[in-house]
Amino acid sequence: MVAFKRLLLLAAAFASSYAKSSSGDSVLVIVEPKKQADYTLFLDGLREKGYDLTFRSPRADAPLLTQDGVPSFSHVIFFAPDTKSFPSDITPQSLVSLLGSKTNLLITLSTKQTSLTSLAAEFSLAPAPPGTPLISYFPERSEPLNVVPIQPPSTSHILSQNMAPVWFSGTPFALGNNPMLVPILNAPPYAFASEVDGGSADSLVDAAEKGGEGLWAGSRMGVVTGFQTTTGARVVWAGGAELFSDEYAKKQISQGVESGNKQFAQEVASWAFQESLVLRIDHTEHHKFNTTTPSELYTTSDELVYTAQVSRFYPERGVWKPYSDLKDLQLEFTMLDPHIRIALPPVEGKPGTYSVQFRAPDRHGVFKFVINYKRKGFTHLLSSTTVSVVPPRHDEYPRFISAAWPYYMGAISTSVGFFLFSAIWLGGEVKAFDKKGKGRKAE
Amino acid sequence: MPPKSAQEKARSPVESLWKAYNEDTPDRLKFVDSFLLFLMLSGIIQFMYCVLVINYPFNAFLAGFASTVGQFVLTASLRSQVNPVNQGEFKDVSPERAFADFALGSIVLHFFVYNFLG
Amino acid sequence: MHVFVASLLLLVASVHAKILTLQSPRFVVLDSQGQQSRSEPISLTQKSRNPVFLNATDTLKVTFQVVDKESGEGTQPHQTFLRFYDATTDEEGIQPIRVTQGGKAKLELNMARPPLSLPPTGDVPLQVMLYIGQPNFSPIAVELFDLHVPHSQPPPAHPDEASFHLLPEIHHIFRPDQKLPYKLVSAVFSGLVIAPWFLLVGLWSQVSPRLTHLFSPNVLPFILSLGAYEFLVFYYWVDLKLGQVLLCGGVLAIINLFTGKHALSSIAKRRLNKD
């Protein structure tokens, strides 16, 4: 009976919408136990997708983020924006090293200054000063000024099209120009950071005149921003945790229009936890033009063929499938500096295969085939294969060149001349050593 | 005597050199000399080609030119060893021994020439 | 964007907010001498049809007074922002306008010393919007005009930025192939190289010794083995490898040794006998 029930549950689980992360299912949620109930919709959504949630209070010491140097969880969510001090294993340095071990993070900030606020600066994000949340007078609404509806962008790889506006409350951050930042949701152009009550107009003008980043205003400010690290881990910084809460998910934008918070939260988590926009290079191979086996050694000016196989992760089924839609993949043939950089186009008829043929430079040395593909939001594709390019061996040079015919004729004619000379010398009369006159006379 | 010397002085030095060579040199040596002349011409023409047209397969030029020059040297040494006039200097070298050296040297030369000819 | 704001403005909540309005809004363009080159009132409902052009020495002055529509009193709103936006590059700049307590607002934009809030500009004009917000009042959003300003420096790019886009292709320039002379020229010179043969044959026909012993069994094997050696060395050039040549050469050397010794000793005997 129990087994049958289990089978039914399993079947139900497979039948429902099932999205799996490509890098693991274990999630640690750091949240005050009292506030845990505020995020049930979001967390249940994660569970439905197949994630394994573990909870930890911000003041508790267990479970640890890393055990014996190995990260214990694949993903970590920080829903503790107001906690001023964390236990000793949660420091900005430890979080950075977690990212180095490919653990993904989803961090929510607030208008209060915490140790995580200083970490945001490492990611080229400058949160607004403490006590100044994002406020907006537009659109006119009954909610307080610091609860702002924001329309998600229409062109985004991470979010679906035509999403309903999202309620947000929290701190905005100024974005640096680091290309590894992936803006997900920016503030509306008419919004700015200020105290909710008693903010003065003069202080805003003075802040702007100070120069630099005195004023937090406009759509260049981020509210939810992602960061793709070079190791492959992803971080999402959100200016407030209410974005993920049940209250905002249920709050209507206008009469009969649901807010997009629930869908937005799931899609942000989906990007953060390596479900969407995840690529990888399955394998690469290289060989000389008319052969199929790779070789360590190529000769200068050889025609080389390089092939790469790229897959993308599809979270609906949790599988990797070949992906041929990368239009701007490039291959570099590098020895200290790229000697050759050419497009690596997809091959018709072979899904996921990209191939190019080119001529090795006529300089010899140790070269590398390098694919270094970085685009906002996508995983970085990095592949490097080392080969040697050597000058031609002594018997690989062209022979019997037309320009050298006179020299060939000269050598052959000397050879033939020597042979005839020897033949006549050996076969001739010895008598002819005498002087001309005498020899004749003797005959 | 005086008429003869007057006759001799009237001819140019080149002509008298040529007459002396023709009369005094045995046929066998003249045979060798024609081979030497042939080798020299062959080398000069190859050199002119290299200078005037192209020296691109330089190794081929070196091989071809060296074959003529080397063969010239070997043949010249054979001539001097076999010349009856030099018998005094080459007492223990019979003409056959000289030819054997010549043949061996030539074979080795040709081996290197064809190796380098490309 | 503007349509969205307008539509949201229509969804007025249950709160009956007071209304603000702008009194005598006006913008003026002054040149470096202070002469007015353009002076226009600002319409609250329609964007100015003609874009504003500013040279590097011009000054743009925007003046208005914010008043409560019902009471006519001037108020200092919390938010009085001018927004410059470049739709093609997505660059934006926000400039707060200083407003007195009585609601009198004045902004001076001197292109000789442009404000930091002005975003980097290119060919496309900046869209200029005015946002006014005050608690308990309905907010105001006014599209002012399109502004053309001189080109500015492009924004400083992060050193890694280029690697996130398509990089320029690099093609290797190969050494040009060796140019060969015409085959005819080479053929002619080959002929010239062979030409001395005629001379040689001619001379030899006159001075060569009579070939009496050419085919004697003493001498012929040696001549033939010399010929074989020459052929081997020639064939090495055509097709053989060194190892094969040395092998055959070793074998031939032994043959040559014997035949040569025999031939030369027979010649020597003949010569000595004669002498």
TrEMBL record, chain A:
Main localization of the protein described in the UniProt heading: endoplasmic reticulum
Transmembrane segments: 405-428
UniProt pathway annotation: Protein modification; protein glycosylation
Signal peptide: 1-19
Cellular component, GO, one term: oligosaccharyltransferase complex
Domain spans labelled OST48 middle: 286-426
Keywords for this protein: Endoplasmic reticulum, Membrane, Signal, Transmembrane, Transmembrane helix
Domain OST48 N-terminal: residue ranges: 27-272
Location of this chain's protein in the cell: Endoplasmic reticulum membrane; Membrane
Membrane topology field: Single-pass type I membrane protein
GO biological process, one term: protein N-linked glycosylation via asparagine
Database matches in Pfam families: OST48_MD (PF23358), OST48_N (PF03345)
General function of this protein: Subunit of the oligosaccharyl transferase (OST) complex that catalyzes the initial transfer of a defined glycan (Glc(3)Man(9)GlcNAc(2) in eukaryotes) from the lipid carrier dolichol-pyrophosphate to an asparagine residue within an Asn-X-Ser/Thr consensus motif in nascent polypeptide chains, the first step in protein N-glycosylation. N-glycosylation occurs cotranslationally and the complex associates with the Sec61 complex at the channel-forming translocon complex that mediates protein translocation across the endoplasmic reticulum (ER).
Quaternary structure annotation from Swiss-Prot or TrEMBL: Component of the oligosaccharyltransferase (OST) complex.
Family to which the UniProt record says this protein belongs: Belongs to the DDOST 48 kDa subunit family.
Name this protein carries in UniProt: Dolichyl-diphosphooligosaccharide--protein glycosyltransferase subunit WBP1
Organism this protein belongs to: Agaricus bisporus var. burnettii (strain JB137-S8 / ATCC MYA-4627 / FGSC 10392)
The organism's taxonomic lineage, starting at the top: Eukaryota, Fungi, Dikarya, Basidiomycota, Agaricomycotina
From TrEMBL, chain B:
Bilayer topology annotation: Multi-pass membrane protein
Transmembrane segments: 35-54, 98-117
Subcellular location: Endoplasmic reticulum membrane
Any Gene Ontology CC annotation: oligosaccharyltransferase complex
Main location: endoplasmic reticulum
UniProt-listed GO biological process terms: protein N-linked glycosylation
One Pfam family recorded for the sequence: DAD
Keyword terms: Endoplasmic reticulum, Membrane, Transmembrane, Transmembrane helix
Keyword Endoplasmic reticulum in annotation: yes
Superkingdom: Eukaryota
Pathway per the UniProt entry: Protein modification; protein glycosylation
PANTHER family: DOLICHYL-DIPHOSPHOOLIGOSACCHARIDE--PROTEIN GLYCOSYLTRANSFERASE SUBUNIT DAD1
Function: Subunit of the oligosaccharyl transferase (OST) complex that catalyzes the initial transfer of a defined glycan (Glc(3)Man(9)GlcNAc(2) in eukaryotes) from the lipid carrier dolichol-pyrophosphate to an asparagine residue within an Asn-X-Ser/Thr consensus motif in nascent polypeptide chains, the first step in protein N-glycosylation. N-glycosylation occurs cotranslationally and the complex associates with the Sec61 complex at the channel-forming translocon complex that mediates protein translocation across the endoplasmic reticulum (ER). All subunits are required for a maximal enzyme activity.
Oligomeric and partner information: Component of the oligosaccharyltransferase (OST) complex.
Similarity comment text for this entry: Belongs to the DAD/OST2 family.
Protein name, per record: Dolichyl-diphosphooligosaccharide--protein glycosyltransferase subunit OST2
Species of the source: Agaricus bisporus var. burnettii
From TrEMBL, chain C:
BP GO annotations: protein N-linked glycosylation
Claim: Iron is one of the keywords in the record: no
InterPro entries xrefs: Ribophorin_II_3rd, Ribophorin_II_C, Swp1
Residue span, Ribophorin II third domain: 28-112
Coiled coil: none
Lineage of the species this protein comes from: Eukaryota, Fungi, Dikarya, Basidiomycota, Agaricomycotina
Main location: endoplasmic reticulum
Domain of life from the UniProt record: Eukaryota
Membrane-spanning parts: 184-207, 219-238, 244-264
GO (cellular component) term, any one: oligosaccharyltransferase complex
Descriptive protein name: Ribophorin II
Job description of the protein: Subunit of the oligosaccharyl transferase (OST) complex that catalyzes the initial transfer of a defined glycan (Glc(3)Man(9)GlcNAc(2) in eukaryotes) from the lipid carrier dolichol-pyrophosphate to an asparagine residue within an Asn-X-Ser/Thr consensus motif in nascent polypeptide chains, the first step in protein N-glycosylation. N-glycosylation occurs cotranslationally and the complex associates with the Sec61 complex at the channel-forming translocon complex that mediates protein translocation across the endoplasmic reticulum (ER). All subunits are required for a maximal enzyme activity.
Record membrane topology: Multi-pass membrane protein
Keyword annotations: Endoplasmic reticulum, Membrane, Signal, Transmembrane, Transmembrane helix
Signal peptide interval: 1-17
Location within or outside the cell: Endoplasmic reticulum membrane
Pathway given in the UniProt record: Protein modification; protein glycosylation
Residue span, Ribophorin II C-terminal domain: 174-271
Family affiliation: Belongs to the SWP1 family.
